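INFO  loader      accepted 1 record
INFO  loader      residues=137
INFO  predictor   begin
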Amino acid sequence: MKEKMHNNESFIFISVYFGKKDGELLEWVKSVPWGSFSLITRKVILAHLHGEFYNLPEFEGDEANEKNSITKTLTIKQEDEEIYNYLSSFDDNNRSFEIKKLLKESLKTKGKNPKASIKRPISFQDCCTTIMRTLQN
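INFO  predictor   done
INFO  writer      dumping tokens
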């Protein structure tokens, strides 16, 4: 984990690599709108910590995105202490594995929550608003 300060607020960054072996999870990650990965992943981890289940929202894939791998950065803020403590309990090599495991579990429930479906193309603002509504449910 890398730690940085910005305006007296501490941020921790965790890079998560998704490759061909991640299959459907890789396709989902490639479809996530810019800036939404950390927000959704934090919600998944919090649901897990509270013994709840979280359905990942669905996004239409980007047909032009032919990449076989992608790296996403999970940003954890100072106020996400519960998430930070959970992820810190794993050694550096297992952190990404645990994050992907939780995302895969949430992906398996796809389609069971019709409110979690989002279709692209929509504006960035509409996307953020829809994600926020979905995360509040």
